[in-house]
Amino acid sequence: MNQPQNIKYVVKNGLCIGCGVCKTACPHKAIKMIYNDDNGMIFPIIDEKICNGCRICLDVCYGFKVDHELNLRIFHDLPNSIIGNYTEAYIGFTTDQALRFNSTSGGVTTALLIHALEEKLIDGAIVTKMEASNPPRAKAFIATTTKEILSATGSKYCPVSLAECLEAVENDKRYAVVGLPCHIYGIRKLVEFSPKIRNSIRLYLGILCGGMPSYLGTQYLLKAYGMEKQHIKRLEYRGGGWPGRLFIQSESSCQQKEISISYPEYWQGTFGYFFPYRCTVCHDGFNEFSDISCGDAWLPHIMEKDKEGTSLIITRTKIGEHLVQTAFQKGYIHITPIESQDIIQSQRGLVQSKNLTLRARINLSKIIRRTLPTFDLSRTPPANLTSYMSAIELYIGNAMASRKSLWWLFDTYISSIRTIGHFISRFKRHESHRI
Ligand SMILES: Cc1cc2nc3c(=O)[nH]c(=O)nc-3n(C[C@H](O)[C@H](O)[C@H](O)COP(=O)(O)OP(=O)(O)OC[C@H]3O[C@@H](n4cnc5c(N)ncnc54)[C@H](O)[C@@H]3O)c2cc1C
Ligand code: SF4
Ligand code: SF4
């Protein structure tokens, strides 16, 4: 097979997640990012007349290939666990009560950015907020004040291109960036080609990622809850305590409406079917190339009593550990050290999807001749029958969810899956009583 010349190959094979790093990387400015409402994704288009096949776009693209030796260049070691290279781990939360309540988990990501800005360690931060004039859409921007950083609090479960921000950074200024594992990987690779990015991006704050639904996920929820896209005034995927809720406010000439649905209720059984193909074959849930990774502290003793939110914090570099320690000493965050097994325990779902069941989806993709990204699978355990069944179930649901014309069938599909799920759990309970 001929070597792919540019990221057209990535898009054609469904491996693009719309991070936008290739656009910034292209030295010939041959790439534009566009939004496609039919599949709810942002993706690059290439001007073939300008592209000279230098392949730099492919070099930085997480969708195409993961260069695991990047670990050696950043951490001087290959990771020996599924968490990636790390120095310390904590659970914690911001000391700002309002932020803790409005953030996704414990608000540590936002608190660390505010600390870095107020201590003049950075001049700005690349963060993502909902578009004020078009709330179902999210947009990355460069925040240069505490107020702007606070406006970006909260997870956006949709694709986000960082291209515009990466192009807007100034050579003599220092920035932090917040991103998903694929964003952070792409920027770490971009540093190897762009002196400007190398000089200016000083801090990588990664958020854990079990998968990113396309905008079709949000559109499907709007339809399910009887909300019209053009009437949406406010949309928040998390916040309002922990684990939080989806909050949507709509306003038309004849009606005002608000809905609030708990995070577990809208995610489980629906949202996961809207992942683009690349997310279904992604191995990095812990954001292993970041300086600090933050996620939800899904630990039983925390979940039992915490209604405000607690973050899981993994530090990976000296810069990351130093920032967490100084933020703690200066009173921005509260932290408690935890062990590596607590990280795994708090992220059972993530470990399940990004490690334990990944091989089945990879094998199934090979069988149906889908193109796979190149990455090291040596830490991925073999597939078993249950993981094959869940992979088949996911891809069937995914095929329906990704075509708006099949949503009527998808409705029936997910309600059948839920019924079967209830039946299986009742059966299991019954069997355990007999024991
Ligand atoms: C698609 C997605 C999947 C996730 N999956 C998991 C998971 O499986 N397990 C888990 O523990 N945590 C997951 N998270 C992370 C979790 O939702 C929180 O983002 C994380 O715990 C940080 O919380 P916080 O309170 O510290 O962040 P906050 O203080 O609320 O700040 C969140 C920061 O994330 C940035 N951000 C939000 N959405 C995006 C986005 N789409 N792209 C780039 N930057 C963004 C914002 O700009 C903001 O700076 C996921 C997040 C996303 C967006
Ligand atoms: S770099 Fe990002 S936007 Fe570009 S092709 Fe790869 S995944 Fe898509
Ligand atoms: S699952 Fe992987 S590819 Fe998908 S958004 Fe998360 S990190 Fe990126």
Describe this structure in words.
With 435 residues, the protein is α+β, with helices and mostly antiparallel strands. It folds into three domains: 8-59, 2-Layer Sandwich (Alpha-Beta Plaits), CATH 3.30.70; 70-213 and 272-351, Aspartate Aminotransferase, domain 2 (3-Layer(aba) Sandwich); 215-268. It has helices spanning 8-12, 21-25, 56-59, 70-75, 97-102, 108-118, 146-151, 163-168, 181-190, 195-200, 215-224, 263-267, 277-280, 300-305, 318-329, 340-346, 348-356, 358-367, 385-401, 407-434; strands at 31-36, 41-46, 88-94, 124-130, 138-143, 175-179, 201-207, 232-236, 245-251, 256-262, 292-296, 311-315, 333-337. The strands form three sheets. It has an eight-stranded mixed beta sheet with strand order 5-4-6-7-11-12-3-13, sandwiched between helices.
| Overall radius of gyration | 21 Å
The main β sheet shows up as: 8 strands, mixed
* Rounded average pLDDT: 95
Spans where pLDDT lies below 50 across 5 or more residues: none
Oligomer: single chain
Q: Count the helices. How many?
A: 20
Q: What spatial form do the alpha-carbon principal axes imply?
A: globular
Q: What is the class of the largest domain in the CATH system?
A: Alpha Beta
**Helix-strand category:** alpha+beta
Key traits:
single chain, 435 residues, alpha+beta, Alpha-Beta Plaits, Aspartate Aminotransferase, domain 2, 8-stranded mixed beta sheet, 3-stranded antiparallel beta sheet, 20 helices, globular, binds flavin-adenine dinucleotide, binds iron/sulfur cluster
Can you give me a brief rundown of this structure?
With 435 residues, this protein is α+β, with helices and mostly antiparallel strands. Helix content is 40%, strand content 18%. Helix 18 crosses helix 19.
